[in-house]
Specification:
Two copies of one chain form a homodimer. With 302 residues, chain A is an alpha/beta fold. Chain A is 38% helix and 25% strand. The first copy, chain A, has one domain: Ribokinase (UDP-N-acetylmuramoyl-L-alanine:D-glutamate ligase, 3-Layer(aba) Sandwich), CATH 3.40.1190. In chain A, the strands form two sheets. Chain A has a nine-stranded mixed β-sheet, with helices on both faces. In chain A, helix 8 runs antiparallel to helix 9. The longest helix of chain A is centred in the last third of the chain and has 18 residues.
Chain lengths: 302, 302
Amino acid sequence: MADLLVVGTLALDNVKTPFGAVDDALGGSATYFAYAASFFAPVRLVAVVGRDFPQAHLDLLAGRGVDLSGVQVAEGRTFRWTGEYGYDLNEAKTLDTQLGVLADFRPVFPESFCQSPFVFLANVDPGIQLDLLQRLERPRLVALDTMNYWITGHREALQRVLARVDALLVNDAEARMLTEEPNLVKAVRTILGYGPRVVVVKRGEYGVLMAVRDRFFFTPAYPLESVFDPTGAGDTFAGGFMGVLAGADRVDDATLRRAAVYGSVMASFTVEDFSLSRLTRLTQSEVEARFRAFQEMMRLEP
Amino acid sequence: MADLLVVGTLALDNVKTPFGAVDDALGGSATYFAYAASFFAPVRLVAVVGRDFPQAHLDLLAGRGVDLSGVQVAEGRTFRWTGEYGYDLNEAKTLDTQLGVLADFRPVFPESFCQSPFVFLANVDPGIQLDLLQRLERPRLVALDTMNYWITGHREALQRVLARVDALLVNDAEARMLTEEPNLVKAVRTILGYGPRVVVVKRGEYGVLMAVRDRFFFTPAYPLESVFDPTGAGDTFAGGFMGVLAGADRVDDATLRRAAVYGSVMASFTVEDFSLSRLTRLTQSEVEARFRAFQEMMRLEP
């Protein structure tokens, strides 16, 4: 097993779906990522929170063995996201974003973190992503997430980051926006030309498309009778995906495919409840059972 | 190999996409279905055309070995559909429908057609579908297609047909409309309760979801760099799907899964050009090569 480093956000979310609402719930890209990845590999977390961030949330991650020595507690308020979903759960409507301490985030972490073979740069400022990249010592695989805000407003910095990472994880709208290409297959091929050799496109209820150089792989989403809250699904996918790679300490095609399915497995649990509620009740044997269910749904010989 | 009967439409289409336009092009559900199915099994076609239907179109199907003795040539004009697609090729906008001879369509066909082990009731009036069902002698598998027009306007007749067929093939919007259930998994389970033991949901660029009783199977769509015209993709899928079942003369789970992939293979060719242009240039070895490409994209061990 190899160490897995994530830099991203710890947040407090207000989320409303057709099925209910929560206020001040634990959220953030690094939270979902680290919790999901902790099922497969040792995780190191780099993020910032304000003084208002409940200690219980940090204890929850520490309880999963996540190394929190890269989490700064700064003066000010924790990053807050307020969002809403309609019956089309594929698309979140952001109602409010309060950056708080995230506005001045400069990662501070132990020197040992620079020797992390697997690294996930969650959706933060490409400038921060680039700084961090420069401090890493010969990682085996670095993966990147981003979003529309950075694509439209910070394209140049983002392109510099893209040229230096091994994998990009985005949703289909982001892939199209990044490449200005409506056809998703062309968009993926264009992104491969930017630098990454692995492109993972998350398509919500339609599953995931992964390209490893010129080879495509598809995994469906788990057929759920009720999707409660999709918040964090993408970051949970990334956590499962990177966790499996780090856990195996391998980046070959077969491990990448297994990782994409485990990512889908983990995401399928997250959406069953608000915040990390379902993940915190999750057992390793439930994870393995759902992985077998995916295998069963995907194979030609039933 | 077992005989495969299809009742549906032969049509002349006017289609406009962002990439071009055709007028009076060969179209219709039974056309795409029969041509695609002819790669796998002997096909019997039941439909009606007007005096204006070019003989060359019938010759094309006859050249594929399709038995046309159930095709009536009636006084009047052939069914015509005029439609348009925007850049979102998942949704057709119907601009005009001229029923012509289809308005008074009463299937007439040789008595021998009643002994067809495999039957596809393409998207026509549920009354016609029901009449035809009553004339069949112990078929092994009957599959049904339908559309929003019949779901909203002829629900009672449609439910009677559904209670008597083995398989339903619909797109995701139709599955939701038929069951008034936004969650697709619940919609599929509801349809299974109506009668069919097989439900195939076509999701355009996102591929196909098949439920065989309580077992789900997913196949992706082929990752095409350019989708030229999606007209006929669903009927082509159905042709490949039913063709493989009839060709194997089997309806077990493994054959159903193989059939769903071959259906996707055939549909992926249809959308590469207008009308049946790509299908008429298609070779068996291209079909097999793309089937292998699907296997490659779907399997966990690359």
